[in-house]
User: What shape does this take?
Amino acid sequence: MDKHKEKDLYKKTDGLLLNYKIIKAEINNLELEIEEIKSEYDGVKAIGYEERTGKTNAFSSSVENEILKKEKLIRDLMKEKRSKEILLSKVDNALTILEEEEIKIIKLRYFEKMGWNKIGILTNRDGDYCGRIKRKAVNKISELIWVSKKYTG
Assistant: This one.
């Protein structure tokens, strides 16, 4: 893989790890949103008796239109939720290939948002050395997380 592509994947992975907890919260909120939409079919409470002037096969019922609109919204939200779940599963899977020390540094830096000095103290290492371990670990997992990029460019 060329250096430019490698750098792009590193940045993408870095951003993904920085936003890991946010993405988890988004998944939970999407689930709540889907549940709320399913429970609020407002239009199913009244029937309209408007005058109709022509024969048509098109849906004209407000109830039918509202249900179709909400079902599409639910499908879109479920697709978004599944996409985020797959992304986090790829991260979790990729982390399994790392050494114990690399995992610890990744978790402290990205998930606990700790600075290098504190990470250095907790791992009994120099902060700069921990930074090098982090970069090496992120490079290792980048190609696993973005595996399709190897084939599509």
The mean pLDDT is 87.
